[in-house]
Amino acid sequence: MDVNVPDARLMPATLAPPAAFSGRGRRFAWTLLLLAVAFGAVPAAIVGTGSSYLAQIAITTMIFVILSASLNHVTGTAGLLSIGHAAFYGIGAYAAALLSTKAGLPFMVTLPAAGLIAALFGFLVALPTMRLVSIYFAVATLGIGEMIYVVLLNWVDVTRGPMGIRGIPPISLFGWQADTLLSRYLAVAVIAVACVWVLHRLTHSYYGNALRALREDDQCADSMGINVERLKIESFVVATFFAGIAGALLAHTSAYIAPDNFRFMESILILAMVVVGGLGSLPGAVVGALFMIVLPEALRDIGDYRMIAVGATMFLSILLLPKGMLAEGTALGFVRRSFSRGWATIAGGMPVGWK
Amino acid sequence: MSNTLLSIQGLTRRFGGLLAVSDVSATIAKGELVGLIGPNGAGKTTLFNLITGFTPPSDGTVTFDGQDVTGRKPWQIARMGMGRTFQNLRVFPNMTVFDNVSVGAVGAFGQSPWRALVNGGAHSRAVSERSWEALERVGLTAQAGDIAANLSYGKRKYLEIARALATAPRLLILDEPAAGLNDTETAELADFIRRLHAGGVTVLLVEHDMGLVMGSCSRVIVLASGRKIADGTPEAVQRAPAVLEAYLGVEDDAA
User: Fold this and answer.
1) In a designed cystine with B84, which of A108, A156, B62, B173 is the match (CB 3.0 to 4.6 A)?
2) Does the pLDDT at position A93 exceed 70?
3) What domains does chain B contain, in order, with CATH numbers?
């Protein structure tokens, strides 16, 4: 079709990028930097100090990175406010704990099983609730979350109720056991990085654009040919799958889980990570998790005042940066330029789309 | 009737006791530029929603490109090639101009999480190129990376059209595109729609602005009180007594 619009084809000239954006090295620079921190600096610090406390924080951070990144997928990107994320985390943890302690299954089986069982519950919850919008959906997830918590607490025959489950074997793979601090951390880090990578590919793509369109105006997305209901269910299932994976990691690294690990407050903590980091921003979710886990620990010296400091920091960060520490728009541009996910009309041009 | 793109037969919609659309039948042939007009409350929006699948009809059928699409969901109808814009500007405000348009292309090419994970390069390239092409057609390529909410009102109108074009529609339905535009902007828009049509797009223009419809469309359908009261060339419609009475009656020179 030949429609000559006057100012079309302006682009190649005006899009010509500053030289700084065209380097291929930059793409790998960021990826390498992140991998160097996760697999170089942190392990070096754990080995160097020999501190189990440090290792425990590093492991907790990685688990919460998965939780925060997965909640961001459904709540930040797709716009479905879920305040029951911890319940799916709990389902994954109990699935892994019971499958390993009662059925004697190895980590290689309990890890994916925990994800799939949590995702199955996610699917069953999503089916009837997908027509609900905004706060109504949030209240539904709150109800489901509380229900799951109460079941974990009171179904004593299976979950041992408030006593929790003890003696969950550590992460193991083909006979190798993650029984040192370092190996435990590394195993969790590898899995967390893999989870974030999957969410990164889903978010930073045209599939991700479709998810963002749902959040912005689902009726309008519908009339563009987007299967809105399927997409909502998919995003919830993906998020609950990764919450389940995070639960399995908790079970296998702490050897003991109890219903209290999965209370409503945990859901709120995860939600706070997403909001402080930047709703819809995957890098933000990672930074938010880091911030909310590391800050209270770093402030240990000031004793009871630390929670006040954490609360005040959250309050101020939302006040000053309402779109989060790494706002979605900034994060998308950053990922397009620095992780080689962007599509540009001309080679080396400023990327606008996704590869 | 292989040349018929859209055919509606006896379309009726009741809301409680109110008959919003009553037994409306019409056809649109491939390559036409048809206007749909009517005074406020005539049932234009309801008819629009019946055609695009947002509201199920109480009675009657909608046939698109030879297939009965009555009762199908909006996304299914959109994917068959019916693109639309909204009366009250509904761009995705926090997404960039390019990402807005890409949603139309994703709708047309289909969405799948697997393609985002593995082996989706060809699909992404197709979406990228289709989106860029749509931006070129409306002349918004220079704003491709801007956040949609920051565009001027007029440009957001063109963004909506580009997003609909990215679905590669065989029928493009524009819902009051001139609403909120001044005379100069309306004239530019009319020009743009005519060129779009000359480029081979079948257009149904639902409008309030008589000048735009009478000046651009080869055929005009007039709705009043939920019924079709005229269907013909702009000249014939303007002279039809029923139209004069229902719509143009008070003005002698509405065109």
Assistant:
1) B173
2) yes
3) 1-80+170-190+204-249 (3.40.50.300), 82-168 (3.40.50.300)
**Partners of B19 in the beta sheet?**
B14
Within-domain flag for A66: yes
Distance CA A96, CA A171 (A): 11
Instruction: Give the residue from chain B lying closest to A213, CA to CA.
Output: B92
Rounded to a whole number of angstroms, the distance from the CA of A246 to the nearest CA of chain B is 20
Q: Which of A1, A201, A216 sits opposite B93 (nearest CB)?
A: A216
Query: In this predicted structure, what is the pLDDT of residue A7?
Result: 40
Q: Which residue does chain A place closest to B145, by CA atoms?
A: A352
Of the residues A11, A14, A218, A352, the best mutation for testing chain B's interface (the one with the most B CB atoms within 10 Å of its CB) is: A352
Query: In this complex, do A223 and B54 lie within 8 Å of one another by their Cβ atoms?
Result: yes
Domain of residue A297, CATH code: 1.10.3470
Nearest C-alpha neighbor of A214 from the set A198, A233, A197: A233
The answer as to whether A16 is a domain residue is no
Residue A301 DSSP one-character state:
G
B4 within 8 A of B202, measured Cβ to Cβ: no
Burial class (CB in 10 A: 0-12, 13-18, 19+), B62: buried
Report the domain count for chain A. 1
Tell me whether residues B125 and A202 touch, CB distance under 8 A. Answer: no
Q: Which residues of chain B have pLDDT under 70?
A: 1-2, 247-255
